[in-house]
Amino acid sequence: MKIEIITSFNQRYYDMIGKECVETFLKFWPAEYSLTCYVEEFELPQTTRINQISFDALGQDYINFQNDQKLNGREKIFAKKAYSIIHALKNSTAERIIWIDADVITENHLPKELLLTHCPSDTLLTYMRVTHHMERGNYESKTVPSAESGFFIVNTTHKDFKSFANRYEEYYNSRIRENLRRFYDGDVLGAVAQEFEKSSKIIDLCKDFTKPYKTPLKHIQLGKFLHHYKAKSAKELFTQLD
After folding, report:
1. Quick check: 220 and 150 in contact, CB under 8 A?
2. CATH top class, domain 3-240
3. Rg of the Cα trace of the chain?
4. What is the tens place of the pLDDT at every residue in 30-68?
């Protein structure tokens, strides 16, 4: 099975934590896999098992989104990740696309067998579902689906893959906001996953949790190998580690 692992970052984020994401990938992931890095306004050193794609390849829709005066700065920042994902969904030749955030650090050798158990042929998407209240801090407001999108897997051979990929892209190009708490990539992924779970098999790695977690990655099997330095304070702590 051909698997492509992807991530994205700019120079600042690479210097802060992305460099360790790349280096620990090379150290601990199965040697047969490479990492595709979407890079903004800089280039990585040429290294075996590392491919790089410039943000210049993301296309006019990405440029239009970044130039849209109706969108706020955070929405535009998270769209950098989203349009990297869109590019991979449209152009990858792999049978599975695995996304990892640039602040996901691999801490132990990741067994290939465990990785493959998360890539069954009958499954469209493997991800970590979370829910949010539509009004932040108002626990009486309705809940909406979202995703902890620091790690997820898409099956490009699934019968519904193209429809899934097109729908994810449509959210961005058409600025669809219904039932999103925020116009961020995780909220979009969660909304699209909910649409497709009615007709396609989707694995929610959080389904057996007895309580919700803000950073669920460490509570699943892969959490023995991957650590997500998600919050700003976590990244600051990481930069202080020897």
Report:
1. no
2. alpha beta
3. 17
4. 999 999 999 999 999 888 999 999 999 999 999 999 999
- What is the value of pTM for the model shown? 0.93
Q: What is the pLDDT of residues 201-218, one digit of tens each?
A: 999 999 999 888 878 999
* Domain boundaries along the sequence of the chain: 3-240
Q: Which residues of the chain have a pLDDT value below 70?
A: 134, 137-141, 231-242
- The angle formed by the CA atoms of residues 198, 120 and 29, to the nearest 5 degrees, is 130
Report whether 23 contacts 37 (CB < 8 A): no
Find, among 8, 55, 3, the residue nearest to 34 by Cα: 3
Q: 3-state SS string over 152-204? A: EEEECCCCCHHHHHHHHHHHHHCCCCCCCCCCCHHHHHHHHHHHHCCCCEEEE
Burial of 160 (0-12, 13-18, 19+ CB in 10 A): middle
Rounded Cα gap, residues 21 and 177, in angstroms: 31
**Pairing mode, if any, of strands 3-10 and 96-100?**
parallel
- In the numeric block, the tokens 């306004």 are attached to 41
